[in-house]
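Message: Just now I want nothing more than another pair of eyes on a protein record. I am handing you a single protein, as its sequence and its fold in token form. As I understand it, each token names a local backbone shape. Take your time, and here it is.
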Amino acid sequence: MFKEFSAVELIVAKREKQELSTEQINWLVANYTSGVVADEQMSSMAMAILLNGMNRREIRDLTLAMIASGERLDFSTLTVPTADKHSTGGVGDKITLMLAPLVAVFGVAVPQLSGRGLGHTGGTLDKLEAIPGWQASLTNQQMHDQLEKVNAVICAAGAGLAPADKKLYALRDVTGTVEAIPLIASSIMSKKIAEGTSALVLDVKVGSGAFMKTLERAQELAQVLTQLGADAGVKTSALLTDMSTPLGRKVGNSLEVDEAVEVLAGGGSQDLIDITVELAREMLRLSGKTDVDVAAALNDGRAMDKWNEMIKAQHGDPTAKLPVAKHEHTILAESSGFVNELDALAVGTASWRLGAGRARKEDPVQFGAGIILHAKRGEKIEKGAPLMTLYTDEAERFDRAVEALSGGIKIESELSTTFTPLILDRINA
């Protein structure tokens, strides 16, 4: 049994920049999960944490308490090691789709428990549900069996995994506390540690299309995340990657699946290939596999074979035609020159307004909605040539989507020399 506290006294303590004890944090999380601590009280605590922070011990205790609120998965009986990746999210970020089958090629199982998205586009599950027949929900036993047989699974997290996080995540989304590093870190790591993976690589996005707008904030978050992983006995590292411009050329649900398949077939946008290969190498390194040619598995068809196997295992048809939007609108370049700015947030907001994302968790997404970029940042374009094509099932959405792009695109006569690299930093625990 927990020692009894009052929610108000804990809120006041954090408001006054005091440390919360392990007992206090355990009591808070357990009683919020059960409903004793009300949403408005936890909202106040979340804001106090955002403003005043938590130290490493407090964040670790918060993470462990959230894990203890539900079940833990155990993959120790698998005949292969496990490794997973988590991205803090961005525009055109379909890396998971390619990464899971690619890593699986090398005999490392990838238990990718994913979610549905709020914001720019759908989450990984929304993208995969664009594939006819594909099923997101698996039992723990089905997940275990698929990992043993295929070495890769992308599915929904069960309701029993870190239920405290599910409640707090929804609350943060509507209370202006999403950016609180202790809350981001405990949310990510409670789920990943409870998931039971042996190794974890974090893809921490930096830039206009990411939660972390600056490299300094992203580095702070990555340090906390990797330390939490180390504390829990999970081999953890982080790559900080650029999200000032969209990844790849396609943004949207079925559009991103289509582009992921292009990469798995040995083609696709170079930025997607580069980051997928780097993350795969890091996951394999943490799993003790360093003498492997990751890029070759994309080019010779092995990753595609594994993708087909993974999709079929969850009743999807990898050969089926993907949903296509009813309407399209092409934006032409207003001048000739180089695309020196293609802002991720502008493109993401436009995609969301087209119907690719959702405003509320209960909203549906349009599988075919989104944007194809005919010219990426750094590329040359002629006046009157197609710059991007917008897709939606509801033509009345085009005006607001075009409005979102205003100011987010710059075409200039000289090529900019200030582009940021794709991988900005690496952090190990």
